[in-house]
Amino acid sequence: MKVVLNASLGKAQLQKRFAEQIAGQAIWVDDADAAIGELATADALICPDHFYSEKVAAAVRGASPNLRWIQLLTAGFDHAKRLGVPKHVTPSRLAWT
Asked: How many CA atoms lie within 13 A of 55 on its CB side?
């Protein structure tokens, strides 16, 4: 499994948690261009809602055949739905407790 990740708030904590869980499968990206380069072979995308831009959404719709999951680190996923999420991809949001 290949997971593409982006985060700014709480990034260090998330990197530690993901390193413990999926170490070699986690690909951290700093911007949309880096994400797009990795999405072609990714199974999941984990990012804040604002990171799912028109550019990223276009890559998800057109060039990410293996992608099955988008996990948003922010409340709600209306923005992602507006930009388009293919039917074969499950969008979700992180519930902080």
From this structure: 9
CA 3 to chain CA centroid, Å, is 7
Distance CA 71, CA 5 (A): 9
Domain total for the chain? Answer: 1
Domain interval for residue 59: 3-93
The CATH number linked to 56 is: 3.40.50.720
| pTM for this model (two decimals) | 0.84
3-state helix, strand, coil in the chain (%, to 5): 45, 20, 40
The residues, any chain, with a CB within 8 Å of residue 59's CB and separated by 6 or more, are 35, 36, 39, 40
Tens digit of each residue's pLDDT (9 = 90 or more) over 61-82: 998 999 999 988 877 777 888 8
Identify the CA nearest to 79 among candidates 96, 56, 63.
56
